[in-house]
């Protein structure tokens, strides 16, 4: 799905806000920032396909560096129980019952080429950018949660409570759905193209996460995939995910 032109913003924004206010979602409607409307220094292009490679042999069960990095970057706290807590990244541990081999890995939005969340969204709030990043427009999300039911990776969270002290780069709102954005506010900047999870993982000397352009054969992620290989979670669904795992 293509991005909404920036020049179209003002009238469409006013119309969306009136519609949302009519639904009693004034708090969400008052949000002044939209991921659709930010003027990026490097606009999304189909020439690129951003993705992640997770090297699971470097990822230990007790490590949550990527989760902490994501939470710090987007202002996500640990408030709430397991049912209501927002999780853009969660760590899971797998054990092969036959061999006893244990694997720990982070799971986030997989940024599918054929994204089920986009297909079922009745308002178009769930959308995929030209560069493969799957996002949610908080101005048009009505909180129906169809996308959460459609996602085979349980990668989306619903915001139940009013949020305060939000970060301008990570707009969040009660009654809306959210998930990993691949840190579009960072990768759209020319000087910093690494998501917070990859930065924190590297800072803590694990280097288990490689971010880059899957369309570029010379990028680090493409070269590692050629050398190490990489698997998709639920490859049988043929979603062509942007997140790959080595060592599964």
Summarize the helices and strands and which ones pair or pack.
Layout lengths: L8 H14 L3 H4 L20 E6 L9 H10 L14 E7 L6 E7 L7 H5 L5 E3 L5 E3 L9 H5 L6 E2 L18 E2 L5 H4 L8 H8 L5 E5 L6 H9 L14 E4 L2
Parallel strand pairs: 1-9
Antiparallel strand pairs: 1-8, 2-3, 4-5, 6-7
Please tell me about this protein's structure.
This protein is an alpha+beta fold and 248 residues long. Strand 2 (89-95) and strand 3 (102-108) form a beta hairpin. The model is unreliable at 1-13 and 19-38 (pLDDT under 50). The protein contains eight helices and nine strands. 24% of the residues lie in helices and 16% in strands. A three-stranded mixed sheet has the order 8-1-9. The two termini are 31 Å apart.
Largest sheet: 3 strands, mixed
The DSSP helix count reads 8
Q: What is the annotated CATH architecture?
A: 2-Layer Sandwich
Question: Judging from the principal axes of the Cα atoms, what is the shape?
Answer: globular
- The overall number of domains is 1
Distance between the termini: 31 Å
Low-confidence stretches: 1-13, 19-38
Give, in order, the helices and strands: HHEHEEHEEHEEHHEHE
Oligomer: single chain
**Average pLDDT, all residues:** 85
Structural class: alpha+beta
Using only CA atoms, what is the Rg?
18 Å
**Strand neighbour order, sheet with most strands:** 8-1-9
Number of strands: 9
* Share of β-strand residues: 15-25%
Percent range for helical residues? 10-25%
CATH class: Alpha Beta
CATH topology descriptor = Alpha-Beta Plaits
């Amino acid at each position: 799905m293509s991005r909404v032109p920036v020049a179209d913003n003002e009238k469409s924004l006013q119309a969306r806000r009136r519609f949302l206010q009519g639904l009693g979602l004034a708090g969400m409607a008052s949000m002044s920032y939209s991921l659709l409307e930010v003027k990026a220094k490097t606009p999304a292009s189909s020439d690129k396909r951003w993705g992640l490679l997770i090297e699971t042999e470097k990822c230990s069960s007790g490590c949550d560096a990527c989760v902490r990095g994501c939470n710090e970057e987007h202002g996500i706290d640990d408030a709430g129980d397991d049912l209501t807590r927002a999780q853009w990244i969660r760590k899971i541990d797998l054990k092969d019952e036959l061999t006893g081999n244990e694997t720990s890995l982070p799971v986030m939005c997989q940024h599918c080429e054929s994204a089920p969340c986009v297909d079922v969204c009745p308002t178009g709030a769930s959308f995929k950018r030209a560069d493969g990043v799957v996002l949610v427009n908080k101005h048009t999300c009505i909180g129906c949660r169809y996308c959460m039911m459609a996602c085979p990776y349980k990668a989306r969270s619903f915001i139940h409570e009013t949020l305060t002290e939000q970060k301008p780069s990570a707009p969040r709102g009660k009654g809306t759905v959210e998930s990993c954005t691949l840190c579009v506010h960072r990768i759209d900047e020319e000087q910093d193209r690494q998501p917070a999870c990859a930065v924190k993982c590297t800072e803590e000397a694990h280097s288990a996460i490689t971010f880059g352009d899957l369309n570029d054969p010379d990028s680090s992620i493409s070269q590692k995939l050629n050398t190490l290989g990489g698997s998709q979670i639920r490859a049988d669904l043929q979603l062509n995910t942007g997140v790959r795992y080595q060592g599964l």
